[in-house]
């Protein structure tokens, strides 16, 4: 016996003393995985009563079962309340909403199994009813809240929840519908479909219902009033049917959700843009192969041409075309990362592209030429990364920021902080870091004061003594130390070297009013001596002291740190 409400039908049968059929109905409830707990308890009690009666243990009051029979209700309040609870829950992501629906699907399915789905029109009517009543239930909850600061009804959140709800319950409704069609085939009771014109299960009608079951789809009432040849054409079609378009819709939604499209975008693309699924799948696979995510704009643009969309995806993936591609390859040759080279090549104007490469080259050259001051090698990866970041940030004005606004100077000083810290610890011990005046001591000028005393004095002054020595006071000490150094190593520095060093000004502008030629020459000597290079007249003749000389080239062990 076919039943939409087995618990009530079982009570009616029990009231009419049909114990065998009533027992089958209650067993159906017991075997239903989606039955409510109260229904299971009632079915279990009735089964025990039936078996006691059959064994002669008890005598039943059959009128009692008629009294406890409930009238069938078409209300979907329980479903609407569950959807409202999910709406106000903390579930935000698509996967979270899916999981929340799965946890509550038992109650929903149990209630919907009592609704007779006669055909596709009945199903759609049910969906419309749930969508309208569910939205009203949520809006009522908003209206009951006294706080005015509460957020308003989010229509697209509701669309997401309802869309996913439909996707989860549709298979259950379909199974129930096919169960009804099977019952009609077996019994011939076509009156279940509720159409006055359908009174007898004719061979044509039987064939239509059989074909619907075979295709595992909802019945369409229009089939009954069309010629069989036309209906055969409908059933044999692989594309263009209602079933086909629904399957395509869910396939599209799956791709959209993987790409994390918003519900607004999904709604628009499903109902506005009539994009072929094969085209969507093509551009999606193309984006996956290039390691980037598909954008809603890509889907809309695909209606006007796939090749243009693929070009946009290539751009996002770091693959440029034409002159931009050449510029990107040029940047890669300089050591720029794939991400940075793509960003700069894509965004930089043709007129400013040379500024990026020129500034990068000049910055590394400045680091090389002034290595005796900053002690940072041009090969330093942190240095290159920092310059690269500035090139990405200031495309058309990177030269101004790097040199006129002193960005390169700050970068080099920051990179040299660790070297100075290690040196201070070596001179004064690890406790120097905890001194309140450490921030004053941890500067490049203090670092070179200590270098002077290391090479030109018997002892290293204390921390307080070093801090008290100003640049003005330190200047004559440098001159005196320089003269002693020249005599000690028997060096002869020509006037041309003096003049060229005096004229040469740092591109990073690190010199102050007390900076002298002697100080610059001593800085170069200290650098070479730190790396174990002997100071000789021959070294001077080779051009080690001349401006823009490749001082790093005179160091033998170039794998060592510059602040050795």
Lay out the secondary structure:
Blueprint: H1 6-15, H2 19-30, H3 37-55, H4 62-67, H5 77-87, H6 94-112, H7 120-144, H8 155-187, H9 203-215, H10 228-236, H11 242-258, H12 263-271, H13 277-289, H14 296-301, H15 306-316, H16 322-333, H17 338-347, H18 353-369, H19 371-374, H20 381-393, H21 398-404, H22 407-415, H23 417-428, H24 438-441, H25 444-456, H26 463-468, H27 471-489, H28 495-503, H29 517-530, H30 537-541
Helix pairs in contact: 1-2, 2-3, 5-6, 5-7, 6-8, 7-8, 8-9, 11-13, 13-15, 16-17, 18-20, 20-22, 25-27
Summary?
With 564 residues, this protein is an all-alpha fold. The chain has helices at 6-15, 19-30, 37-55, 62-67, 77-87, 94-112, 120-144, 155-187, 203-215, 228-236, 242-258, 263-271, 277-289, 296-301, 306-316, 322-333, 338-347, 353-369, 371-374, 381-393, 398-404, 407-415, 417-428, 438-441, 444-456, 463-468, 471-489, 495-503, 517-530, 537-541.
Task: Provide a descriptive summary of the structure in words.
The structure is a single chain. By secondary structure, the protein is mainly alpha-helical. The chain has 30 helices and no strands. Helix 5 (77-87) packs across helix 7 (120-144). The longest helix has 33 residues, at 155-187. The model has no long low-confidence stretch (mean pLDDT 86).
Which terms summarize this structure?
elongated; about 65% helix; mainly alpha; about 575 residues; 5 domains; single chain
């Amino acid at each position: 016996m076919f039943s939409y409400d087995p618990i009530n039908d079982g009570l009616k049968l029990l009231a009419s003393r049909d114990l065998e059929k009533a027992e089958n109905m209650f067993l159906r409830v017991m075997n239903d995985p989606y039955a409510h707990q109260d229904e299971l308890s009632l079915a279990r009690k009735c089964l025990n009563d039936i078996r006691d009666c059959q064994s002669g243990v008890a005598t039943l009051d059959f009128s009692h079962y008629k009294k406890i029979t409930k009238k069938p209700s078409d209300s979907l309040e329980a479903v609407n309340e569950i959807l409202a609870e999910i709406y106000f829950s903390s579930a935000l992501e698509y996967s979270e909403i899916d999981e929340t629906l799965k946890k509550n699907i038992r109650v929903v399915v149990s209630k919907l199994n009592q609704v007779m789905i006669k055909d596709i029109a009945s199903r759609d009517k049910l969906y419309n009813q749930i969508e309208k009543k569910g939205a009203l239930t949520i809006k009522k909850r908003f209206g009951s809240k006294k706080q005015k600061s509460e957020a308003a009804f989010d229509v697209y959140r509701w669309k997401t929840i309802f869309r996913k709800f439909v996707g989860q319950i549709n298979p259950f409704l379909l199974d129930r519908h096919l169960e009804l069609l099977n019952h009609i085939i077996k019994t011939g009771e076509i009156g279940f479909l509720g159409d006055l014109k359908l009174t007898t299960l004719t061979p044509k009608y039987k064939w239509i219902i059989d074909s619907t079951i075979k295709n595992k789809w909802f019945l369409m009432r229009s089939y009954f009033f069309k010629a069989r040849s036309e209906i055969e054409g409908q059933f044999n079609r692989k594309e263009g049917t209602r079933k086909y378009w629904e399957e395509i819709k869910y396939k599209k939604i799956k791709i959209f959700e993987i790409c994390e499209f918003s519900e607004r975008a999904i709604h628009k693309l499903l109902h506005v843009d009539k994009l072929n699924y094969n085209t969507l799948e093509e551009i999606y696979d193309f984006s996956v192969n290039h390691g980037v995510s598909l954008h809603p704009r890509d889907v809309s643009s695909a209606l006007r041409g796939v090749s243009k969309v693929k070009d946009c995806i290539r751009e996002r993936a770091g693959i440029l075309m034409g002159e931009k591609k050449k510029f990107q390859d040029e940047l890669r040759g300089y050591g720029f990362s794939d991400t940075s080279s793509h960003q700069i090549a894509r965004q930089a104007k043709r007129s400013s592209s040379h500024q990026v490469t020129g500034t990068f080259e000049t910055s590394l050259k400045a680091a090389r030429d002034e290595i005796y001051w900053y002690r940072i090698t041009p090969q330093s990866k942190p240095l290159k990364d920092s310059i690269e970041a500035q090139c990405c940030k200031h495309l058309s004005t990177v030269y101004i920021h790097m040199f006129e606004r002193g960005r390169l100077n700050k970068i080099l000083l920051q990179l040299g902080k660790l070297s100075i810290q290690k040196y201070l610890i070596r001179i004064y011990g690890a406790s120097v870091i905890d001194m309140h005046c450490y921030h004053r001591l941890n500067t490049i000028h203090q670092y070179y004061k200590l270098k002077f005393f290391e090479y030109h004095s018997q002892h290293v002054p204390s921390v307080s003594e070093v801090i008290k020595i100003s640049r003005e006071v330190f200047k004559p000490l440098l001159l005196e130390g320089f003269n002693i150094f020249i005599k000690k190593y028997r060096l002869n520095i020509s006037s041309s070297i003096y003049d060229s060093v005096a004229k040469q000004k740092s591109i990073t502008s690190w010199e102050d009013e007390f900076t002298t030629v002697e100080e610059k020459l001593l800085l170069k000597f200290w650098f070479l001596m730190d790396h174990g290079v002997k100071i000789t007249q021959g070294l001077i003749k080779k051009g080690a002291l001349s401006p823009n000389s490749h001082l790093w080239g005179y160091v033998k062990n170039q794998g060592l740190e510059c602040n050795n």
